[in-house]
From TrEMBL:
This is Uncharacterized protein. It comes from Arsukibacterium ikkense. InterPro entries: DUF1707_SHOCT-like, LiaF-like_C. PANTHER family: MEMBRANE PROTEIN (PTHR40763:SF5), MEMBRANE PROTEIN-RELATED (PTHR40763). The lineage of its organism: Bacteria, Pseudomonadati, Pseudomonadota, Gammaproteobacteria, Chromatiales. Residues 16-63 form the DUF1707 domain. It comes from the Bacteria. Residues 111-169 form the Cell wall-active antibiotics response LiaF-like C-terminal domain.
């Protein structure tokens, strides 16, 4: 079954929206055992790297299943950031001198995080974090230290760093919608480094979700 063209013609729709529709069809059919793991990986590569609408149309042209309500609900749960209402978490101060500090897992993210790193190493992993605020500020004073921030693709990251013989590398594309958390990083780095990157690539994320769906429908990876 081809991508839905009953409304606005495909060529006039946003390309990324059509790409996501094709990937959803691939995952839906793979999770129900219609195509093999090898075929899914091959087609996912095509959909992820596609540059034209025709490539997206062709990659799902012979697939029969369309994403249903159960699939959409599971996708929403898996790809939406986790918010938790309740008592506000106090702002956090991280001081790292000749040492290392790591935040990972399901930790509560405060509205503001202050980091002072002197010859230290700090890693903040937001991939499973629980957000209480949509806007988070990370204030950085980095002296000959390293700061690594790992984020899922549905979190937006803005970097406003001032570097003195330092480096800032933001490889996390802003893909979240208006309701997504936005992390703003500001401050300075002297002879230090700041790296912002995705915990998983988009392809790795979709592959993991596809295998999760297979388990949900009673199938193992094959």
């Amino acid at each position: 079954m081809a991508i839905d063209s009953s409304g606005v013609k495909i060529e006039d729709r946003p390309f990324d929206q059509v790409r996501q529709e094709a990937i959803d069809q691939l995952i839906m059919n793979y999770s129900h055992g219609v195509i093999s793991a090898e075929a899914f990986e091959r087609r996912l590569d095509v959909a992820s790297d596609a540059k034209s609408f025709q490539e997206l149309i062709d990659v799902v042209a012979d697939l029969s299943l369309q994403p249903d309500t159960q699939y959409q609900q599971q996708r929403e749960r898996s790809f939406s950031p986790r918010y938790q209402a309740g008592n506000d978490t106090r702002n956090e101060n991280i001081i790292c001198v000749l040492s290392s500090n790591q935040h990972s897992g399901q930790w509560l993210v405060p509205a503001e995080i202050r980091i002072v790193s002197v010859l230290g190493s700090v890693e903040l992993d937001f991939s499973e974090a629980i957000f209480q605020h949509q806007h988070i500020v990370i204030r950085v004073n980095n002296w000959i230290g390293s700061l690594t921030i790992l984020v899922p693709e549905q979190v937006n990251v803005v970097s406003n760093m001032f570097n003195i013989i330092g480096s800032t590398d933001n490889k996390a594309p802003c893909m979240g919608d208006r309701q997504a958390p936005q992390i703003v990083i500001e401050g300075y780095s002297i002879l230090g480094s700041l790296d912002v990157k995705l915990k998983k690539t988009i392809k790795e994320k979709f592959s993991a979700f596809a295998n999760q769906c297979r388990q949900m429908f009673g199938l193992n990876k094959s």
